[in-house]
Amino acid sequence: MKTKNIPRILLALSFVLILSCSKTEENTPIINIDSLVLTTDSPDQLLVVDEVINFILTGDDGNIYTDQATFYVNQTAITGSSFTFSEEGSIDVYASYGGINSNVVNFDVINATSNTLLISASKVLRSQELTFSLVDPQGNDVSSDATFYVDGSAISGNTYSSGSTGMSEVYAEYDQVGTPTQTDPLSFVVYIPKRKVVLEDYTGAWCGYCPAVAAAAESAHAVTDDIAIVAVHETSFSFPDPMHFDEIQTLKDAFEVDGLPAARINRTTEWSDPYPTSGIISMAGEDTDLAIAIASQLNGSDLAVSVKAISEVGIQASDKLVVYLLEDGIINDQINYYNDDPTSPYYNLGNPIPDFVHNEVLRQSLTSVLGDNMSETAALNEYNRSFTISIPSDYIRENLSIVAMVVSADNSAKNAQFSHVGEDKDYE
Prior knowledge:
Elements: E1 18-19, E2 36-40, E3 46-48, E4 51-59, E5 70-73, E6 76-78, E7 82-85, E8 89-97, E9 100-101, E10 105-110, E11 116-119, E12 123-125, E13 130-135, E14 146-150, E15 153-154, E16 159-160, E17 166-176, E18 179-182, E19 186-191, E20 197-203, H1 211-223, E21 227-233, H2 248-254, E22 262-265, E23 269-270, H3 278-283, E24 290-299, E25 302-311, E26 320-327, E27 330-331, E28 357-358, E29 361-365, E30 372-373, E31 382-390, E32 400-407, E33 413-420
Parallel strand pairs: 3-10, 12-19, 20-21
Antiparallel strand pairs: 1-9, 2-4, 4-7, 5-6, 5-8, 8-9, 8-10, 11-13, 13-16, 14-15, 14-17, 17-18, 17-19, 20-22, 22-23, 24-25, 25-31, 26-29, 26-30, 26-32, 27-28, 32-33
């Protein structure tokens, strides 16, 4: 029988309740539950290739919703409620029903004729503990029979942590019928999180002075990739903006935005004319204590998104998660008051500028626009949340991206991450 509690390549069985934004989904069933719990018929989360697992989804009302739910394996929807694990690796599974997402369950899948080395994570924060394990072809834990070597030096036991950053390798040595045998090495990285600055640009296609903010944001982005830009559009009665974000007034009220153009750094700091990039660039890439990862997959019109966060000091109950869906490459005329200004990058481009390309346009918020409360999470432990939404047919799929940020009680952004839809962006 397989031994339980084998460490994961990713943290396993995070029973954080995760609710998705469902306002874009039509014909959502009316249900009287607040949470869903995903379980399986497997005795543990270590599996072998070609093993079949059945999923069970239970509501907080005690009823089973397995037959009505959609199950996602690595953000890809599957048919039915069972799955055959045909490839090695780390697999995340969650379920969605009625606009509510379940907890995430993680599996390690192995395919071996000899002992296999497992590592609890491939990327860890400084001082975060790693656990190494050795399992036999039947999935039994035989770690006690092995010696583990990190960068060529034997360690005591099978746990390891380091305050030094960089890439390392681990292998296990064990006795196989009287012959000393080594596993293939596995690599892992110890890192310090880097700050990604959030820049929110309150703008409108009718706003003739707004292109100045866009130009300054582009200048900052040309110097650093550690910046997440969000363009929040507002319409005008005299010049409707087709990119209008319905909840912009909530943001304007919260962040004291009285008129356009306006911009905020890390949500709460005003960025005003002449929009100097030096302050943004100096913060971008700084060492910090919190990291965010994003994974997403688009299947037809269904977008599945997974967001993870980890902190050296822990996630507080007052912290909030904000997740935005953005679109690049939207073509729409832009009023331009800089047409006669030779110092402007928009000089002589026309007023309005025809076929202006609008990027980083905020399309939807998968959370509340001011953030959803996060559950308190201890230092060096992982917080996990998943979302499923339906993408409108007029969005250009290949131009979609995601911005996620963790904000404190005063709404200031602690850190952020961004990725293109379909991209898995690890902790950085």
